[in-house]
Amino acid sequence: MNDVDWVGLRATAREALRFAYAPYSGFPVGAAAITADGRVLTGANVENAAYGVTLCAECSLVSALMMSGGGRLVAFTCVNGDAELIMPCGRCRQLLWEHGGPGLLVETPQGVLTMEQVLPQAFGPEDLARVSRPGPPGSGEDKS
Known about the structure:
The chain is an alpha+beta fold and about 140 residues long. It is built from five helices and five strands. The protein has a five-stranded mixed beta sheet with strand order 2-1-3-4-5. This is Cytidine deaminase.
């Protein structure tokens, strides 16, 4: 995936800015990504008066991924309202890990990095399978 058109992908993220709804923070974000099968997806942040339920641009992008058939993300970028390249927040880094994995290429202000570099020692679905399942609280039973 070394042939990513980062300039074009960033332009697509800038176009997504027009769909951002950021009346509270005044900080619109547009995102764009390429899937393993070549689809280009976009997302924009959608705020809410109850700040905690605001959706980041990455959330709407991953929703678009799932609504268009799923798959894996292979390249990602996002920009702010001034069309400047920005880093995904911590919550969104976790979301990107889940849907792109350690090899997802992320365009950052310091260059293109793998998701493994952006989120070292990430927690993912494979970690859930490693947990032994204890019995009900107080039972003294281990169901592993």
